[in-house]
Write a structure and sequence with these properties.
Elements (H helix, E strand, L loop, with lengths): L2 E5 L1 E9 L2 E6 L2 E6 L9 H19 L3 H12 L3 E2 L5 E2 L3 H12 L23 E5 L4 E5 L26
Antiparallel strand pairs: 1-2, 2-3, 3-4, 5-6, 7-8
Helix pairs in contact: 1-3, 2-3
Length: 166
């Protein structure tokens, strides 16, 4: 499905319609022929699909109705943004999956309680110092940034492979 932003003519379009995929790069909007995605069935892909299936069943069979209601309220009270930058509404199940799918990749526990504060976590500046002679990296957390008794005590880093310019 393509997302289209209408204005004095079409101002933005993302997604696929028939055999054409629309997107945007630094150079602007573009269209290309749609390719059928490869389904490699890698170990990681299989694990992630099983994880989402597990969490969906957990939502239906394990969470109490009050917990599901809390997740729905959290989703409704939080601003979510689509790939066009528009604010959208998502379901409580989607909010539950967004938080837990990544969390369960490293920890087996499921976060059943919805966040009490609406909205996404605020930005915190964390600095790193590297020592070239010992290959150590030190993380410096700003004082008072987290309430360690109630906040998740996790910090995840993601790195992709370096890409060549252009």
């Amino acid at each position: 499905m393509a997302l289209v932003m209408l204005g004095g003519g079409v101002t933005d379009i993302r997604g696929s319609i028939a055999g054409t995929t629309f997107s945007r790069s630094a150079a602007g909007n573009y269209a290309r022929s749609r390719k059928k995605p490869v389904n490699p069935r890698s170990a990681l892909q299989t694990l992630r699909r099983a994880n989402v299936g597990y969490l969906t069943k957990y939502w239906s069979n394990t969470l109490t109705e009050q917990e599901r209601t809390d997740w729905r309220a959290y989703a409704a009270g939080t601003t979510w943004t689509n790939k066009l930058g528009q604010s959208i509404a998502i379901s409580g199940l989607s909010a539950f999956l967004r938080l837990n799918a990544l969390h369960r990749m490293t920890w087996s526990t499921v976060i059943t309680a919805a966040p009490l504060a609406m909205g996404h976590a605020g930005g915190v500046t964390i600095t790193f110092d590297a020592e070239s002679d010992t290959s150590k990296i030190q993380m410096n957390e700003p004082g008072g940034a987290f309430d360690k008794s109630t906040d998740l005590q996790e910090l995840w880093f993601f790195q992709g492979l370096p890409t060549e310019p252009g």
